Amino acid sequence: MKVGLFVTCLVDLVRPRIGFSALRLLEGAGCEVVVPGRQTCCGQPAHNSGDRAAALALARKVVREFDDCDYLVTPSGSCGGMIRTHYADLARDEPALKAAVDRLAARTYELTDFLVNVLGVQSVPGRFEGTVTYHDSCSGLRELGVKRQPRALLGMVPGLEIREMATPEYCCGFGGTFAVKYGEISGRIAERKCEDIATTGAGTVVLGDLGCMLNIEGRLRRRGDTTTRVLHVAEVLAGPDE
After folding, report:
1. Deepest of 71, 88, 99, 206, by most Cβ within 10 A of its Cβ?
2. How far is CA 2 from CA 84, 123, 149, 190, in A?
């Protein structure tokens, strides 16, 4: 099985260890993983900002880079949602591209969804001592149906206890360009999310999108919380790189 790993530009630039964690999980499950060296962005920021031409150019690029893979897997619900849900609209006026987009979209998965529903993994290499709470990132939840999958995988990690927030599905306030355009509103939403996290007493927040991670961690630190860890689910499942 040839799996193309779409690392995402944010992971590549800000926290590449998430990409390496995803790679270890996929290879450990028996996949032949390819990582196109020229991959960049899925086009979501341009799409969210109304720059259809730039988003379409990036969609074409992604299709070229991953068209020969059996699957495209990404450690990001938002990038996965962009490819699976929004590329079809971008390509609607180009029949040949639309057909290629539809083929790729049908083979595109968020990482935990792929591990659970395609590979059917029964164990993970990670070890973790402590309590975590899980934040459901909006795009993964609402566009890809990612909810049960990360929790099922975290339940396989020895030593890990999950304590649910009262409202794990509430937005963290990031929303890509939303946080830039509407900073005050975004900050208030993030504050509400941090309050919900604090009520669980968990020492770590786990989630599946780096944008949400950065937004939540930034707000936690600004409100004086210097101890709560914020980790991507791939980091927890894969464990430290040995």
Report:
1. 206
2. 19, 21, 22, 38
| Contact by Cβ (8 Å): 42, 62 | yes
Summarised one tens digit per residue, pLDDT across range 121-177 is: 999 999 999 999 999 999 999 999 999 999 999 999 999 999 999 999 999 998 877
Query: DSSP character for 117?
Result: I
pLDDT tens, position by position, 83-131: 999 999 999 999 999 999 999 999 999 999 999 999 999 999 999 999 9
Fold of the CATH domain 130-238:
Rossmann fold (3.40.50)
Angle formed by the axes of helices 210-222 and 183-200, nearest 10° = 80
